[in-house]
User: Which sequence fits this backbone?
């Protein structure tokens, strides 16, 4: 069942703060720009601090939306415009972009050469990572709304952000349900219960999340049930390799189709658009976007090779191979991570990067070029997923505007610009703070794993055999589920995550969802969406509040 059937449309009155018939708010509006810049700095500081001190990253989009709501209620004439749900959407887009960019894309990637012992490569790595980050987000911006990355897919944190903004705007019963869910989610975080897992299960594709729950359970309980740890020995990575290869094949097959998009107002501006069925990016455009993305990633790899000194360290043939492999790894990494995030709200960036690290070791890439490659690849993916969440939130908030198509495209463009503001803030924050963090030994844990693996190799010569063996079930499950469900990718994602009790929460929430839908009918989905959004929002607030603990 596609996700669009489970989200009811908001009423058709213009959102507070927007004049009827006006264009989408622009990030260049003075008050809005100041709000976005300030929120971006806050998000970048939260992201860097949490990943350095606790090894976690938080989705701050709900925090940004709530702050924007509060700003809009300050009794000053110029701030009333912030009551607009579309300006609040731009605010949550900017702060979440800054958070993920500083934590996952920039600080974690530059820590790899630092831990490896090449402090001289930190600044070149920062330049390469920032280039990769920009390309990563541009590809998602251009591909969102295609059959590969459809707007009506789950993107659970995006739905949570949209429901939070709508509830704040409309109030009433929706706000009460969402508020109650948020309090429960916040309480769960304080008790170390991952209630966001249950929230996701109320919002995402049932089959995808069933496999995710199974994977979580196998990872947690395999030592007891099977007397072996399925999380060790690169078993989950093998499942991800098989599922990822099939997912890539499914994506290529989808891109190769030559079907026109079901766009509506793009051709006939006065005709009403149906945002629940319209595909705004056809296969030809998607194909061009991915080809250009690969070309841009290739250019970024060239820049990194030059500033990182690889030109003098590698043979011409080896350098060309490194550049082409780095670009391929970056593109595939972001697609696999994006597909997982689209269905579950989790993105297995660490695992997929580690897979390419293993391949790099197996084909004999020297250690310094491999460390830079890992940093470059790891910088893509998280921002790709986050941009998907933000555009999903915007899509839900804009879906009742008429004419829909031009307004939707304009809104996406402004969200992309808001994300650029967030990235700029993240670059400045990381450039200023990294030396302070690293001198204190505050290194993101994933960077230590990457650097240690590059230094010491795989250790076990049977790693490749294990990965190829477990790739078979991963490929078969992905093939059975098809491109919409991403069942193999989701099983692998679950196997890669060791979160106590998460499997029970996912499976129990899925059972409640199925039973409640049977008794409640069509209204069940709207109510469960609000509960799920509240749980995710509360968990996000709790994660962001951990900056106090980190301090």
Assistant:
């Amino acid at each position: 069942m596609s996700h669009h059937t489970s989200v009811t449309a908001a009423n058709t009155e213009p959102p507070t703060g927007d004049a009827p018939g006006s264009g989408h708010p622009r990030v260049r509006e003075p008050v809005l720009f100041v709000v976005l810049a300030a929120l971006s700095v806050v998000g970048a500081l939260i992201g860097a601090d949490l990943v350095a001190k606790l090894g976690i990253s938080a989705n701050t989009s709900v925090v940004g939306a709530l702050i924007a709501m509060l700003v809009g209620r300050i009794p000053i004439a110029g701030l009333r415009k912030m009551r607009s749900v579309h300006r609040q959407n731009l605010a949550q887009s900017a702060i979440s972009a800054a958070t993920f960019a500083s934590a996952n894309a920039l600080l974690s990637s530059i820590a790899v050469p630092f831990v490896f012992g090449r402090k001289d490569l930190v600044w070149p790595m920062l330049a390469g990572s920032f280039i990769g980050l920009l390309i990563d987000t541009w590809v998602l911006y251009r591909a969102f709304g295609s059959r590969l990355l459809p707007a009506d897919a789950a993107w659970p944190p995006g739905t949570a952000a949209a429901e939070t903004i709508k509830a704040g705007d409309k109030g009433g019963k929706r706000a009460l349900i969402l508020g109650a869910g948020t309090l429960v989610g916040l309480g769960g975080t304080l008790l170390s219960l991952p209630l966001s897992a249950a929230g996701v299960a109320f919002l995402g594709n049932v089959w995808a999340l069933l496999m995710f729950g199974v994977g979580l359970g196998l990872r947690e309980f395999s030592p007891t049930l099977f007397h072996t740890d399925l999380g060790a020995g690169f078993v989950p990575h093998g499942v991800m390799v098989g599922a990822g290869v099939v997912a890539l094949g499914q994506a290529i097959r989808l891109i190769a189709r030559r079907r026109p998009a079901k766009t509506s107002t793009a051709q006939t501006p006065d005709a009403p658009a149906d945002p629940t069925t319209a595909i705004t990016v056809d296969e030809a455009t998607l194909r061009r976007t991915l080809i250009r993305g690969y070309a841009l990633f290739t250019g970024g790899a060239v820049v990194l090779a030059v500033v990182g000194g690889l030109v003098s360290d590698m043979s011409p043939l080896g350098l060309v191979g490194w550049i082409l492999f780095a670009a391929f790894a970056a593109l595939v990494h972001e697609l696999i991570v994006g597909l997982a995030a689209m269905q579950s709200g989790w993105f297995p960036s660490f695992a997929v990067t580690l897979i390419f690290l293993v391949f790099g070791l197996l084909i004999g890439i020297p250690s310094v070029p491999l460390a830079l490659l890992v940093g470059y690849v790891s910088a893509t993916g998280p921002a790709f997923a986050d941009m998907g969440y933000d555009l999903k939130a915007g899509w839900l908030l804009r879906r009742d505007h008429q004419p829909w198509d031009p307004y939707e495209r304009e809104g996406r463009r402004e969200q992309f610009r808001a994300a650029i503001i967030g990235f700029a803030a993240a670059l400045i924050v990381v450039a200023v703070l990294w030396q302070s963090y690293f001198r204190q030994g505050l290194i993101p844990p994933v960077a230590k794993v990457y650097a240690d693996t590059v230094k010491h190799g795989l250790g076990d010569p049977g790693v490749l055999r294990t990965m190829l063996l477990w790739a078979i079930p991963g490929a078969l499950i992905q093939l059975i589920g098809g491109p919409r469900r991403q069942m193999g990718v989701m099983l692998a994602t679950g196997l890669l995550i060791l979160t106590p009790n998460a499997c029970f929460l996912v499976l129990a929430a899925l059972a409640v969802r199925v039973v409640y839908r049977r008794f409640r009918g069509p209204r069940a989905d709207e109510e469960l969406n609000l509960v799920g959004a509240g749980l995710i929002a509360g968990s996000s607030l709790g994660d962001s509040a951990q900056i106090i603990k980190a301090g």
